[in-house]
Amino acid sequence: MGRQLKFHIFRYNPEDPNSVPHTDDFDIEETGSMTIFIALTRIREEQDPSLQFDFCCRAGICGSCAMVINGRPGLACKALTKELSDEITLMPLPVFNLVGDLSVNTGTWFRSMNEKVSSWIHTDGTLDSNVQEERMENELAEEIYELERCVECGCCVAACGTANMRDDFVGAVALNRIARFMLDPRDQRTEKEYFEVIGTDEGVFGCMGLLACEDVCPKDLPLQDQLGILRRKMGWNALKQLFKIK
Ligand code: SF4
Ligand code: SF4
Ligand code: FES
Q: Is the CB–ligand 1 distance for residue 160 below 6 Å?
């Protein structure tokens, strides 16, 4: 027989004027290799079909099942119950708009962040589909792809003190995105142009540097290194502008 698990799950429907935020308790028996996602699916199938939570891939790829698991943002489909105590509290991610219960709308936040930092290659070049693709050194391509692995789950944003206090802060995820474009030789933006995008209090200078973002990232992205590199570059750029150095 497996352990008896007790789940305390946040419930609230912002669309229903009679709904009041509260937690509901559910008991289920643990099975081998049970994840939080499996437990939630069982609770929904066996005890409460109205329970809302998001998922898609069930394999840590789509980023949609992120929630706060015993106080720590993480992916429900990757979190094994055997690594948790027998009382498990589940809350929706803060910062994002609540859809209901454990489901939040990360899409609107990420779209706005991507627009704010112009998260695409800026080039005057035109695409000719008849010409062979431009080659890139393998080492550089791998460095870029390392930073491309973000699944936009929102865990780093939810764990970030600045993002929790200020809606205008772009978060470590955006700074990581910019670091990826700075590495890419196809992006023709100058350091001064990057500085205008993230060399502000909404960007790199709003970060308090406590690194909760890297601690919770389920894809182990090197957010700490990127923050350090950008902070040094943007600090140097700020000095150059102050002392009018070319
Ligand atoms: S290090 Fe910066 S971006 Fe990361 S969680 Fe802390 S304040 Fe947020
Ligand atoms: S950087 Fe990591 S924690 Fe943040 S959104 Fe991307 S995958 Fe999730
Ligand atoms: S369901 Fe896709 S990451 Fe969890």
A: yes
pLDDT digits (tens, 9 = 90+) for 45-83: 999 999 999 999 999 999 999 999 999 999 999 999 999
For the whole model, what pTM was predicted?
0.93
Q: How far apart are CA 220 and CA 142, in angstroms?
A: 15
Distance 195 CA to ligand 3 centre (A): 34
Q: If you take atom 3 of ligand 1, which residue's CA is the nearest one?
A: 172
- The span from the CA of 93 to the CA of 12, in Å, is 13
Task: Flag whether 53 is in a domain.
Answer: yes
Tokens of 107: 């899409």
| Residue bearing the CA closest to ligand 2, atom 3 | 217
| Burial class of 82 by CB neighbour count within 10 A (0 to 12, 13 to 18, 19+) | exposed
Binding-site residues, ligand 2, Cβ < 6 A? 63, 150-156, 173, 176, 217-219, 221
Cα–Cα distances in Å, from 136 out to 123, 140, 141, 143? 16, 7, 6, 11
Examine residue 111 and state whether it is found in any structural domain, yes or no.
Answer: no
If asked whether residues 11 and 89 sit together in one domain, one would say yes
Whole-angstrom Cα Rg for the chain: 21
Which ligand is the nearest neighbour of the Cα of 113?
2
Residue 89 lies inside a defined structural domain of this protein: yes
Identify the residue whose tokens are 């865990």: 155
Model pLDDT, residue 241: 72
